[in-house]
Amino acid sequence: MLRRRLLAVALLPTLVYPPQFAMAQKGDGAKPSGQLDGYSHTASDAERQWEEKFRALPVADNVRENMRRLSARPHHVGSPYDKDNAEWMLAKFKEWGFDAQIENFYVLFPTPKERLVELIAPTKFTASLKEPVVPEDPTSNQAAEQLPTYNAYSADGDVTGPLVYVNYGTREDYEELDRLGISVKGAVVIARYGGAWRGIKPKVAAEHGAVGCLIYSDPANDGYGVADSYPLGAGRPKDGVQRGGVNDTDFPGDPLTPGVGAVKDAKRLDRKDTPIITKIPVLPISYADATPLLQAITGRVAPATWRGGLPITYHIGPGTGANAAKVHMKMFSNWDIKPLYDVIAKIPGTTEPDEWVIRGNHHDAWVNGADDPISGMSAELEEARSLGELVKRGWKPRRTIVYCAWDGEEPGLLGSTEWVETHVDELKQKAVMYLNSDSTARGFLFMEGSHGLEHFINGVAAEVNDPEKNISVLERTRRRQISGGGRGADRNEARNRADLRIGALGDGSDYTPFLDFAGVPALDIGFGGEDRGSQYHSIYDDFYWYSHYADTGFVYGRALAQTAGTAVMRMADAELLPYNFANTAETISTYVDEVKKLLKSEQDEIAEKNKEIDEGVFEAVSDPKNPIAAPKREEAPPFLNFAPLENGSSALTESAREYQKLVKTAQANGGAALDNASIAQVNQLLLQTERAFFNDAGLPGRNWFKHQIYAPGAYTGYGVKTLPAVREAIEQRKWSVADASTVTVGQALERESKAIDAAAEKLKSLEGVEGQK
């Protein structure tokens, strides 16, 4: 998994709930009733019965045994056990009645050939760059099969330079360094994990002239600062290292074949012409290896917010003279083409076989990967087994269901991206929904995705029982938001809004190519928030660690299977695709307000800063012994024309309102209008609604990303930017780009409005709907 969800949630206090929550206190969880969205009354009753039968089928012990088998050995891309796992899953899918096959792709996947990090001044120290065996952990000793600690797609290099500590290595951290008068030009920087995705750290370092980058895991983030160190507890031990890709996220997938599927005879390109590779060498290290390096740095003491959990004084450097810390580092890779093994398994639909509901989780890992990704993959397999059992009992899905076990997610969404790029035209015509999971643990349900699916996934979550609290997983998440929602308005919304808001999707798992390249509505779900500590991307993320410190009873793995499987069934069987555009329109309206406020905030901030420069405020408050320079004066941001966004948002709101009225009419009186052969024509129009948000030219400077509502940030990596063309242009002070982007995004909103109108007109023509208000 490219992104780790560490839901840092404090233990919840005892709460007294208002009367509206009483129905959720039953021992078997909430039991919503009534007609399902997109279903006639008769079809809805039958669907609920099948869903209840399905949710009784997943078994926690099966999830456990799936994990034990899949995580028994290291299984990174190109390894023997990666292939073995794929073939084992293929056999299982076939055993359960799926039509299954393996699709192969051939991608550039570098593995380390030479690594070195040594302190050469003012003292000598050589980093071990190793993770030792833990005697209690039976798979931590598989050294011959383990990938060494490294960052994939690092540039090759042999560099020496002064060492500078740059906190998290974000653009904001370098702005602080500028004010402190510290340059990293010609230096090796050391950054701690966190604050931004790991690939941003060497990217920004190179932009500022650094020649090398080290990234270490500070114990304040996932070590003894949050939990006892492994094996005593779940926290990362002193020698634990976070592997991971550092490829530039301008496009995911195989760097040699951007935008097209990677086949066996893909031509190898010169790596210098491959933009995904970093500009400078980068290596991850443990905090045991980082401590002597950080201790050697002299110079200014780091600001309070830059200090981690090590028992040292954090200095920035680079220091002067003989006391200056100096580092020599080497990183060279084997640049090989490796095979991927995507397992694709289908249950054919009976009525609409050319409409696909797609479910996926990846199966490759950096090492054994019990948490990431096998916790999610194990649940998906048990979910598939249960659906296969349901088919044997007579259930037949209306639409085709496609179950996927992706390879190559860890280095850069390789397997899913190459599959989507290969099948993109077919997906644009057939794909109804993509439902993703990845790591999952114990605690609260998280839901992120396309907001046309927000109401849908809320309805599903309301019917799944939380295994530890005996209320629905939706209600438990709602109460979490009430107890720790922050601002009062958020708490009030959690109490009173019919649907819990779901987050928007950026990057970090296999939903990205579906949403951003193919325009398929996507969801990402899982559980977490109660466990402390992490062995993310280390050799200790294995069955022993997970079964002792994560979802130890595998009951939340079962809950994930129940939740995802129910969602797959409900979408596959709906007569009318249950998209809810009212939620989409409301959410986009908030995004438009946000970018308007962002511009105003930038204008006010720059005006105030310039005024304080003129008044000598920065000079007056600067400590003469530790001076901080005034920031640079900036021109006041211009006013932008937000009218295209406002007009597009208004049109979308009106279209969504009218469409939802028609849906309500269609479902009235038992929903006989939905039991109509012409409903297929409405669904075909609905399939194009997410695609309407696309701009074929892509985002400014990132043409692979087509979606105009959601995208990962260019300088956040995983973190989402909504209305990204406008928002990022404002954040980066690219005013002409921002002004042009309000037009292109406004046009996308207008296209979406028209796409909804087309579906509404067709729905209105059905018998039982025509002429109704």
Description of the structure:
The protein is of the alpha/beta class. The chain contains 22 helices and 16 strands.
Brief overview, please?
This protein has helices at residues 41-55, 60-70, 80-95, 171-179, 200-207, 219-222, 287-296, 370-392, 409-412, 414-430, 454-461, 473-484, 488-496, 511-516, 543-549, 555-573, 581-615, 617-621, 643-667, 679-686, 724-731, 735-764; strands at 99-121, 125-126, 151-152, 157-165, 188-192, 212-216, 244-245, 282-285, 326-347, 352-362, 399-406, 431-436, 443-449, 522-529, 710-712, 720-722. It has 773 residues and is an alpha/beta fold.
Q: Specify the overall morphology.
A: globular
In terms of DSSP E residues, the strand content is 15-25%
- What Rg is obtained from the alpha carbons, in whole angstroms? 26 Å
**Unreliable segments (pLDDT under 50, ≥5 consecutive)?**
2-30
For the sheet with most strands, the description reads: 12 strands, mixed
Q: Helix/strand-derived class? A: alpha/beta
The proportion of residues forming helix, as a percent range, comes to 25-40%
Number of strands: 16
Average residue pLDDT: 92
| Amino- and carboxy-terminal Cα gap | 47 Å
Q: How many separate helices?
A: 22
